[in-house]
Design a protein that fits this description.
iron ion binding, photosynthesis
Amino acid sequence: MVSIQSRPEPELLRDGIKVPVKETLLTPRFYTTDYDAVAKMDVSSQQAELEAVVEELRTDYNRYHYKRDDEFLQSWEHIDGETRATFIDFLERSCTSEFSGFLLFKELSRQLSDRSPLLAEAFNLMARDEARHAGFLNKAMKDFHLSLDLVNMTKKRSYTFFKPEWVIYSVYLSEKIGYWRYILVHYHLQKHPENQFYPLFKYFESWCQDENRHGDFFKVLLRSQPALWGTWKAKLWARFFLLTVFATHTITVFERADFYKSIGLDAREYNKQVVINTNNTAISAFPAVLDTSHPEFFPRLEKCVDYNFKLMAIDNSDRPQWIKKLQKIPLFIAIFWQLLLVYLLKPIDAESQRGKVR
């Protein structure tokens, strides 16, 4: 497998303020949607479930969770080299992702306040959680003498339009895969506390429950819309978003292999467990899911990892831009081909699986 080169020193906007990571298909993005269409959604078929989920959000189990204790009050200069670089990268991407969720949820709450009060409240409560997560992660970055100018990012970063149904599919998966990412690290560090090199990891168990509750809300929203689970098109879209999320996760985990190694995790096995568990969880919401047990599933995703490293090597070369673009074309085609072959693997009919104990 092609290895990633050492990361360069962080580029600064000004003293202590990091230049945000360059926007690519793999980095967290900021989203906007058709707010009117969301306001017109009929959620009455899932009214009881929706009210129960919103009540969970109101309870605010983690109100006092995001408090930095005395363990943070020390120098972290002993965390250096690739461990420091990959950990800062993890903190930045996670912070950007949480802040992206905050912006989307806050705007949905504002736009829906007069037309769909219950949904508006739910989005406002989730925005509260995402803001806490982003702020906590940004404070962690400051322990390494860096931080993100989140206010400036709202003005400078581009926004991607997603139709409401795409938002529901993708945010449901983002929250559920986030749950499994955090909880599996938590379980691992419970068994191997010697690998817990920074106190942020102690917060993962309660943190991931926020992700889980947010996913539960989007599951109810999805199941309230028959067009998102009851048609053949819905099955195709569900598989598409699963594949997109799993491919992105696989590539980014292998990019950060040094970070996972620093906490005693094997990147390949960790990725497999996150993907398998997320796919199994999606059976309760999606009309169809992917067959992660197929012998071609993970090998083809990992081929995309190799192609991605080759793309990165081209980017880091000193060749002219036009040559770089030409060199990338066959690699993009190769990634597309591998993903298409995974997509065409026989899926699992989630509707027939729903209700079984997993």
